[in-house]
């Protein structure tokens, strides 16, 4: 905690500059989506291909140079980065091949993507209040983080004080405090996902109302009406989806905690199993977030439950 606060005290100006630069880039992209969306799409696709190919060439060249330095004796094998460069080069090659194949396969649908982004730009310009939704969301998530950190301080400073063999003082936690520690983390995960889910439903409801209204002049406060609809009908849907994702995130945190506790033990088999578990849970979490977000969209449009919206989103995706 002390190191983090000292780092923030030193680099707060740089962080503010980076935030302002990111804000300027975001506003520039919004303006570009409104007027030159087709050029932006082609630039993004071309840039993705060029960056992936360039990264692949650089990593293979770096691996070749490192391997050559090892063979000539300029670098000792133990001090070299031959294996990491080889792994990164192979992974980057796979990414480049997949990117190129996706661009080639989807090239006939670029016009559809351009039209979708053009409509999205029109929606944002018609409803500028949509731009405030992420600000509200992340302010609430930040407040939840502060509440979580406050509870962490209380939990970690509670318990029976004892002195270990190195004469260091620690607080011994009983089962209630250990449970409270994990329950506090679970609540933070659920609240963060709840606020994000509320944002998805508000945005989806407002955009759907804007898109399906033929006479745009008859629209009256679509974002406000979508928010009222969320508060009246869909809070339970969002809470259910947030709880599911929160459980999965808690499982990832538990696996990471076990990995951290087993760092001192030299057991490659156990470490490999834990890494596989971490990767599988992460993939499952990403898929679950994707399906949940689509279920929220279906709920905002049709007013259905979470499970019904999930079924509709899966059928639309497949």
UniProtKB/TrEMBL annotation:
Extent of the signal sequence: none
A GO cellular-component term linked to this record: plasma membrane
Transmembrane segments: 15-33, 40-65, 85-106, 135-155, 185-212, 233-258
Keyword terms of this UniProt record: Membrane, Transmembrane, Transmembrane helix
Subcellular location: Cell membrane; Membrane
Short name of any one Pfam family annotated for the protein: Choline_transpo
Topology in the lipid bilayer: Multi-pass membrane protein
GO molecular function (one): transmembrane transporter activity
Major localization listed first in the record, in broad terms: membrane
Domain of life: Eukaryota
Task performed by this protein: Choline transporter.
Family of this protein: Belongs to the CTL (choline transporter-like) family.
Protein name as it appears in the record: Choline transporter-like protein
Gene this protein is translated from: slc44a1
